[in-house]
Amino acid sequence: MVRNFSSVEQSIDDLAHGYLDRARGGRMRERLTEFVVFGLKQAWACVFGAALLAVIIAARLWYPDHAGLARNDFLTLAAVVIQVLMISFKLETLRELRVILLFHVVGTVMELFKTDVGSWAYEAEGVLRIGAVPLFSGFMYAAVGSYMVRVFRLFDLRFDRYPRRWITALVAGAIYVNFFSHHYILDLRWVLLAAVVLVYGRCVMHFRVFRRRFRMPILVSFLLVALFIWFAENIGTWSRAWLYPNQLEGWQAVSIDKLLAWFLLMIISVVLVAWVYKPEPLDASGTPEVPRLRRVAP
User: Fold this and answer.
1) pLDDT tier, 3 (very low <50, low <70, confident <90, very high otherwise)
2) Largest Cα–Cα distance in the chain?
3) What whole-number distance in Å separates Cα of residue 249 and Cα of residue 121?
């Protein structure tokens, strides 16, 4: 199967090919190239979230306190501009935009509920909001969606023993419901974690960096992405984009307990992305060499 690349993504691939074609021998050189390409592709997959996080930090440091445009409204407009640029320059496809918009909806609904019950809070300013939730919050969930769909394509993901999608949808639905219901009834997050381990425990993810394929238990990949989001959340709360109750009197690190919430949220994210890219097995040969990828069309 051929995966589509955007122009920038194709450039990364072409540069790596050109470098190795000109260089002479050596496994160390090939491994170093794989490592550099891995870093470049990961950075490129994060471009939406990185741009949004950079704007949030810049607004925290330099945005005037008494500006005519509220900071939250500025962040919302900046997020819209970033999304429009991503589509205009074909850095995301219209097909991928569908799942990103779904992340918007799923995330905003959760934000409305969580702010209402006091789980976290935003500054009460601006007009571009729904209730107590500024509209830029939906873009933070969209940033996760953007990363997920891009990394799926950039690393040509394949899976061994991927669970049936209807089963994963049931687990994801239960996780989403628990984010709401645990405020009123028994919190089942540890039961749901056990269900995730049971359903995904045997699944292995294969990913192509450049010329070689690697493998990783999919649960490990969930944990690594959740850890990355937890770090980003610490930056977001430091910038006062939103605050947890224990941060109202002064910033402190987000509780490591939130890592479990982000881990469970990864299951919802994977199910949403599987709507765009159906998880496929590695071909029978498992050959590490794969065809050069063609450029993407929206």
Assistant:
1) low
2) 65
3) 13
- C-alpha span between 224 and 230 (Å, rounded): 10
Cβ within 8 Å of residue 128, ≥6 positions away: 72, 73, 76, 77, 134, 135, 136
Number of neighbouring beta carbons within 10 Å of residue 123: 14
The amino acid at residue 45 is: A
Neighbours of 293 (CB within 10 A): 17
Question: What are the tens digits of pLDDT across the range 236-263?
Answer: 999 989 999 999 888 899 999 899 999 9
Measured in degrees and rounded to the nearest 5, phi and psi for residue 133 equal -110, 110
Q: pTM score, two decimals?
A: 0.85
Give the Å distances, CA to CA, from 179 to 75, 106, 114, 119, 189: 26, 12, 9, 11, 9
Q: Among 271, 219, 264, 225, which Cα is nearest to 102's?
A: 271
Do 100 and 142 touch, CB atoms closer than 8 A? yes
252 with 128: CB under 8 angstroms? Answer: no
